[in-house]
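A sample follows:
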Amino acid sequence: MPRPGRVFRIVLTLGWLIAWSATSLHTHAQEELPPLVYVCPMHSDQVAHEKGECPICKMTMEPMRLDQVYTCPVHAVVAEKHAGKCPICGRTMGEVTVKVAWRCGGVDKDLTEPQKCKDGTQAVRVQMAAAHGNHNPQHGGQFFMAQDYWHHVEGAYPSPGVFRLYLYDDYTKPLAADKVKEVRARLVKEVTDQKTFDTREVASVPLTLAEGGAWLEATVDTLPLPANFTMQAVFGPGGKEQRFDFTFEDFSTDSAPAALDVATRLMMDIPDSAPDIVKMLGERRNELKDVLDRGGLSEVWVPALQGKELALALEFHAREFPEAKKASVAAGARDVVQAAFRLDSAGDRGERDLVMKAAEQFTQGVAALEAAFGVKR
């Protein structure tokens, strides 16, 4: 459960797939064009800002324009440029990523900019849902993406002792009942050896198909809030189990999600002085810790990707340093950047263990940069 810098969540975040289904809008004479990126036609998680080949299959990357809009979780036809309420039902709209193109009548090819068609008419702007463009929970739970980059899950804790699993495709459309039946999932209880820190499973509870087949459900012992659940799921015959970690600070309410203004959350002014940048980087480390302490795996990307930009800015400030000190800065920045991408990817998939390992690397990188610039924590 996106991934711009993340100003449109189109930077090369791990776990991005692009595909589409269409609805149309009229073009304007002089409209502001969304950013142009290049996407592999076979591996749509491979996104670049320049022309080139896919690093996986070597196919030529295809141009595509991506934009952010706010849409209703119930009435997908609604697409607005600003946050607000759905004009049809009054629900809070959530931010999603869409592909924008222009089309001429009788021509299958999508155009990447407005222009005249061969028959003299103006090409019509169309706006198409992008796969993985909407990772907003639909039932007040926690939303994650599976490792196959197609299945998406939302765990919900609607009442004491009741855990529900909602399943979606890569467009966040609920799976049909026959597809839900293919999923095998269970909640697991684990214990950790305090000497070796090895974790082992001691019990499990299977999730069963709810009446009507819309979700999977399990009844468990009532847990105090915040409630932590670990789930293992297999998506189809022959698949391998994948782990998801959920934390609920409160009971889930089956209502529209709050709008997520991705651009605003990522936007920041990077200071001019290195000490101020280091201070801000330390604040992002602390923010990451706070998010993890409350189990917000799907939120770690914000401090992580902001920290990445700050670490890269510090590398620029170190360009006049002696070689040894410059190498220390480069190593610290590399740790922060690598950890940021790992946090983003593992957080999207709800894998707590990988998130915690990446957070440790992020913290080590920040500490190295603080030491290199002589800033005390």
Q: What stands out?
A: Confidence is low (pLDDT under 50) at residues 1-29.
